[in-house]
Specification:
489 residues, Cytochrome p450, five-stranded mixed beta sheet, two-stranded antiparallel sheet, 18 helices, 52% helix, binds protoporphyrin IX containing FE
């Protein structure tokens, strides 16, 4: 009895001391809800970083505020100015990625997406350089995208106007572009392994930014010992990794290092070149994780945006009509769409950008971490502080967009109807960690969108009057499943 009383008093004393310590530490940080020991202040947003809770947070505490993820302070940036300046003013200082229990379980500090320091620098530089060598932004990759666009057109043509859910064929086309780049081959629509791969990536993406994710970060012991989402996420990751290992093995056997044809070939060549270089981070684990990251970063995001693209064409038939009129006026019906065509198609290009803005599929960037003591937006920020930028709030900032909550391609057109870029267009983020796949994503979206609209008029299935434009919340914001009819023009 006596021991229990002593123990309880000790725990209460430690918690109170911790509580006071946290209040003391939070003095130098931007305002925010009161942090408590163990749970921090993430309770205030109900353990979910969604649109409503982040908006409410900014309304209550301002565009620069602090949330505590357990015992770690996290600056939350809201609105174009805070997001842009916070990520770019001392860009290198805030270029770290947060290291957490889950990230370590899933990536072990390797690859590009959640790595840091020398590993991140070398892997990102190499990954980006190799994508360029493989044709990102030029003819090489363009051909791959055109091939997938053709298969996608064939898929819809075979349906002969029947109502169909476009999700899987779109995921298939977009993922095949990255498969061709990374593995050097594509998969057929019926391939069982391909379906399993997509399912595994889908699960990992849905797990990130979920309530379970935050719970697992805060209570790792429970996450480790209870069956549930973390186990399934790890199982999904292991499935992808064993597939990639198999691919690496078959690339080794083919031995194409002298004439590399895909990302894995280039990486194997790099391993050979750097084998005696001190401090080199090129090894098989980083190769595997980089492949994983390119696939994760490059398929689900672009496919989700293309699903929104077709959904918006159903919701705004007048905009679909205007795109088709422009395509018909500028290109012959048999013209093979290429990325260069965007210069002759300003309205269509504006529509593609408005789709990226309005669908705003990435609500927040994966949190950054200050790699040294620095200043962010006038606040002294100690090394290790987390920074979460709300990209969505820049894409809908009423001070920078004329009609932020309307789907309006005019946002990207000047008075003369010419295409214009906009500074608040931060769909691919900003600063040292901005998306390295921006050009590739825009190229894919433009070519696939135009190829489809050139051939088909997209309509709602007979009897369907309305379509749900709300999103399904996750790491990316996806549309609810829907069906459409692709009628040959
Ligand atoms: C519509 C399509 C896409 C969108 C909206 C998008 C958006 C983003 C955003 C917001 C980030 C986070 C940047 C930050 O932390 O500040 C990111 C990172 C990243 N993206 Fe994309 N992305 C897209 C397509 C792609 C493609 C096609 C690839 C590659 C083939 C790619 C590869 C990556 C990688 C590797 C990172 C991590 C970069 C790093 O941590 O250094 N993304 N993307």
């Amino acid at each position: 009895m006596m021991i229990s009383v002593i123990l309880i008093s000790l725990v209460l004393f430690l918690l109170s001391a911790q509580f006071l310590n946290m209040q003391w530490k939070s003095r130098g940080f931007p305002p925010g809800p009161t942090p408590f020991p163990i749970i921090g202040s993430i309770w205030w947003i109900n353990f979910r970083a969604d649109h409503q809770s982040l908006k409410k947070l900014a309304k209550t505490y301002g565009n620069i505020c602090t949330l505590w993820l357990g015992h770690r302070p996290m600056m939350v940036l809201y609105g174009f100015q805070a997001v842009k300046n916070g990520l770019t003013n001392n860009s290198e200082d805030v270029s770290g990625r947060l290291q957490t229990y889950i990230f370590n379980k899933l990536a072990d500090g390797k690859g590009i997406l959640v790595s840091n320091g020398l590993i991140w620098k070398q892997q990102r530089h190499f990954g980006f350089g190799t994508l360029r060598k493989l044709g990102m932004g030029n003819k090489g990759m363009e051909r791959g995208i055109q091939t997938e666009a053709r298969y996608l057109v064939e898929f819809f043509r075979d349906k002969e106007g029947e109502a169909v859910d476009p999700s899987f064929p779109i995921v298939h086309a977009v993922s095949n572009v990255i498969c061709a780049v990374v593995f050097g081959h594509r998969f057929s629509l019926e391939d069982k392994t391909f379906h399993q791969l997509i399912e595994a990536f889908d699960y990992i993406v849905a797990f990130g930014n979920s309530r379970f994710y935050y719970m697992c970060e805060m209570f790792p012991w429970f996450a480790e010992h209870l069956p549930g989402p973390l186990k399934k996420a790890r199982f999904s990751r292991d499935f992808v990794c064993s597939f990639v290992r198999q691919e690496i093995k078959s690339h080794r056997e083919k031995g194409r290092r002298d004439e590399p044809e895909d990302f894995i070939d280039f990486y194997l060549k790099q391993l050979e070149k750097t084998k005696n270089v001190p401090n080199s981070t090129f090894d098989e684990d980083n190769m595997l994780q980089s492949v994983f990251d390119l696939f994760l970063g490059g398929s689900e995001t672009t496919a989700t945006t293309l699903r929104w693209a077709l959904l918006y064409m159903l919701v705004y038939p007048d905009i679909q009509d205007k795109v088709q009129k422009e395509l018909d006026a500028v290109l012959s019906p048999s013209h093979l769409i290429c990325y260069e065509d965007r210069k002759k198609l300003p309205y269509t290009n504006a529509v593609v950008h408005e789709i990226l803005r309005f669908s705003s599929i990435v609500l927040i960037t994966i949190p950054r971490e200050a790699v040294k003591d620095t200043t962010v937006l006038g606040y002294h920020v100690p090394k290790g502080t987390l920074i979460m930028a709300n990209v969505d709030s820049a894409l809908f900032d009423p001070d920078y967009w004329e009609t932020p909550h309307q789907f309006n391609p005019g946002h990207f057109l000047d008075k003369g109807g010419n295409f214009v870029t906009r500074e608040a267009f931060l769909a691919f983020s900003a600063g040292h960690r901005a998306c390295p796949g921006e050009t590739m994503a825009k190229m894919e979206l433009f070519i696939m969108f135009c190829s489809l609209l050139q051939k088909f008029k997209f309509t709602l299935p007979e009897g369907v009057k309305e379509i749900n434009t709300d999103f399904v919340f996750g790491s990316t914001m996806k549309p609810h499943p829907y069906k459409l009819c692709a009628v040959l023009r």
